Amino acid sequence: MNFCLGCEVCQRNGGICIHSDDVSGILDKILACDVLVLATPVYYYGFAAQMKTLIDRTFAKVGMIQNKDAYLLMTDASPRQGDMNVLVASYRSFIGCFDHVTDKGIVYGTGAMEKGEIGKESLTAAYEMGRLT
Ligand SMILES: Cc1cc2nc3c(=O)[nH]c(=O)nc-3n(C[C@H](O)[C@H](O)[C@H](O)COP(=O)(O)O)c2cc1C
């Protein structure tokens, strides 16, 4: 995934990015899906750079992404759910850029510094959200 350069060529050519990389295939899937799940570790209170890179690249399709249920799955080391508030605000602001893309659920995978430390409540919450979608 290359970084968005902010050249705005995509805004003048119907949504085609100047980069030729894997993101175009991901954007096609985002356009086609009914349910959008963003999954990221919390890095310095925000999205991990990989996720943020993809988010920035959705700019090419900003007027075309619509009518989806959205979910956010996060993990972090802190036991305090409030330490995820900045990322949650970013997620809500991001989906708010699109028409009828609605938050349907957030999993707060707190206290998971190492592999396997994810709490059972988080796994159950994710399972239930998937089951009810
Ligand atoms: C660069 C970096 C920044 C991080 N920043 C935070 C942070 O701001 N708050 C926090 O609680 N944990 C932070 N962590 C810990 C990760 O969020 C945590 O280990 C996460 O569960 C890793 O998810 P993964 O196992 O899916 O990679 C950070 C870890 C790294 C490597």
Helix content: 25-40%
Identify the overall geometry.
globular
- Element pattern in H and E: HEEHEHEH
- Strand order in space, largest sheet: 2-1-3-4
Structural class determined from secondary elements: alpha/beta
| Relative strand content | 15-25%
Number of helices: 4
- Number-wise, the strands total 4
The rounded distance between the terminal residues' Cα atoms is 29 Å
Radius of gyration: 16 Å
Which residue ranges are poorly predicted, with pLDDT under 50 across at least 5 consecutive positions? none
Q: What profile does the largest beta sheet have? A: 4 strands, mixed
Q: Report the bound ligands by name, code or SMILES.
A: flavin mononucleotide
Mean pLDDT comes to: 97
What do you see in this structure?
The protein is of the alpha/beta class and about 130 residues long. It is about 30% helix and about 25% strand. It contains 4 helices and 4 strands; from the N terminus they run αββαβαβα. It has helices at about 25-30, 50-55, 85-95, 120-130, and strands at about 35-45, 45, 65-75, 100-110. The protein has a 4-stranded mixed β-sheet with strand order 2-1-3-4, sandwiched between helices. The longest helix is centred in the last third of the chain and has 13 residues, at about 120-130. The radius of gyration is 16 Å and the shape is globular. The chain starts with about 20 loop residues before the first helix and ends with a helix. The model has no long low-confidence stretch (mean pLDDT about 95). The structure holds flavin mononucleotide.
